[in-house]
What does this fold into?
Amino acid sequence: MLIAGPDTRVVELRVHGVQGTTPQTLVDAVAAVDVAGDGLGRIVRPADRLRRPAPGPVLQTEGRPVPRVVEGYLWGGMTSGGVAKATWALLFPFSIANVAHWMLPPVPERNLPAHLLGLGLRSLLRVFALLLTALLVAQVSVVTLDLLAAQCLRPGASCLTSIPTEVRLFPWFRTFLGLLPVVVLISVMRRISHVDWRIERREIAEAEDEERQPASGLPGAHVATDPDTPALRSLHVVMALSVASLIALGGPLKQLTASGSMGVAITVAWVVALVFIGLSMLGVLLLDDPTGGAPHRGGRWLRASLGRQPRRVLMVLSALLVLTTLALQEQLPERVLGADVTVQFVALLMAFVAVLFALLLVPAALLARKTWASLPRELRPWAGGWFAAPVLAIAGLLGGGFGAGVALPVRKALGGGLLLPDGYAYITLLWGVAGALALLTTFAVASFTGAVRWRAFRKGKVWAREASLLHSGRMRDLRAATRAWWWARWERNHGHHMILIIAAVLVVGAVLATLLRVRNVTPPQWTAPFSAFGVFVLGLLAVSLLRAVYLAARQPESGRRLGIIADIAQFWPREAHPIVPPCYALKVVPELVSRVQDHLRDPGTRVVLCGHSQGSLLVAVAAARLLEDLPAHDRERIGLVTAGSQLQWAYPRAFPAVVPHASLARLAGGLDGRWRALCRGTDPLGGAVMTWRRQVFDGMLLGVGYRADGSEGALAPALRGPTGALVLGGDHWLPDPQRGPFPGRRWRSGVSAHSDYTSDPEWDRAVAIAAGLLDVEAPEAPPLPFARKPETRSRDALGGS
It folds into this structure.
């Protein structure tokens, strides 16, 4: 531990979690002012009455008080706020498919079968993502080309009667009106895929351009930009334009018929559309993973063929194909049957790819099992490393559901007896069966959970023995804490099970609907209630989403709530699907690293990165980059504090290749005891980070975890801090409700759960330890004085009289 000198100061750099926050809340001040950043990535400090940056409260250490500067990095503006960012929620199925790539199991070194399986899985993911784009375009074409242009605007239709017949008969009017929304949608998707965050520091941008792939084994080492993204983007745009043309020309199985030269032109355009679709699928199938790319590999020929100029030529030809299709369709027929056939054909292809992906994922997970076989069960990946398959299934089924959910309200709004494609009857049946199963499953899970909880409390079983240690002598607080511990533990242990149940329910409905459609069996009469319920579920899904987008654009608070979806999905770079919002981690992490390096230029400064919830992942990756880049004498001046973190129970288990348990152990060893994790048993979203297999024995909290020397093993019994917290290894277990109130400190009553970790007095102590100014194994300090005496009346273990 470095010895503090007279010029020592601590910079506490805080990073918030999902939903964003205000600058004042982040730095615990009445007012805050920007001191750096570009507006999207804002670095703020507390401000005085003249709006000048002010220092934070001093840190009390064993020897003397040390000056502290509190800074906060705000990144919420990258995921929420404004109409443009609100509409990103409409791309949620695309984002889920992209996240599934990062959930793949790790590929063991020098294992050829695992390497080939990894290549195949990544290729199938890109193909599935391409088909998801095609499905969206096909479903929009159902609404615009079939419902609106062909049926509603045909001469003599009792729909939109305010439009005169002369306008309806005007050449190319209906075709243009039907294709225009599709082309606008494709343009918007292309525009979104081009959006990227500008990194504030020039030298950081140059370092990012080098595409260095660190081999350190630290968290987030593979979170980097994908050089194949421009090629994938172009292939998706070509695919979307070609599908729109193919639908207008009759569909994938049968083209429109015409006589003479017109028939020849339609045939040529139809064949060209199929060729472009085939080239797009072949391109995404062959593009290799960027982390394995090398100049001598055969993939360089594919990348050369998809360079900037070839991509531009391909997209121009696709746009000309759409214009040619428009010219060939002087008058639309009464029904655009190609839309229905295309939706069903794409859906069947997606189902085939998803099943093949799930089958190949089984041996890939088994081959990767040796990387986590020695870990305890609570640290192993979810579903044995197979979790990407149900997530991909949810992405595909949500993509199909969103399209059908929009078509149903549009048909009802237009009126006039419009007909939806036959395939939509099976989609409504799918979601009706899934909705009914979801209700039954919810009732069963709620009943079982309630019965287990009632039986446990009736028998007096203590679910949270740690809470008894934290709230000794405060029986009223113990009762509230015990119940909150039970629910929080249930959510952490079974949250992924709920995702698996949702995927299973949707797949069961999809299998039933697919079997009926493949055999061309008309849904029996007894399925009518399910279909009606499916219409309600799809309509509710679409209306709720559109309403959320509308409110997000009009009300900032709603925008931040909607940002929860984007905050989780947008951490991951564009890999499987290029048409997703930009990855904010590629901007936040380099700018955090740069800010820390700026502070470390002062030899008396020590920097502690503090992250809450999702911010804990950002600061962990930033700390890993700093350990790679900084010299040894500077590495000793950085520390890490995480609060309400998912770095043990969620990220290593959902993303075992990117944030594996071994990478966290390496990070803990590199920080040499300067990584402190604040956790509450009442927090359903955050949990322990540095310890596991905890148990209470003879009034002591024991466990296994990371040691200061970087090894793993049994830890000494937990020490009690001066404010009642139990410190086991690197984890600081906070009493919730808080003890106190303490004179001169902010206090929060009630159960805080996942919020307001900085209000606990243990926060300052954790920052001091992370800064190397305090020894966690020092003799127990005298407790802080209470503003009120703790309750000491005798009660039972659960707080009863």
Remarks:
- The longest strand covers residues 65-74.
- The mean pLDDT is 83.
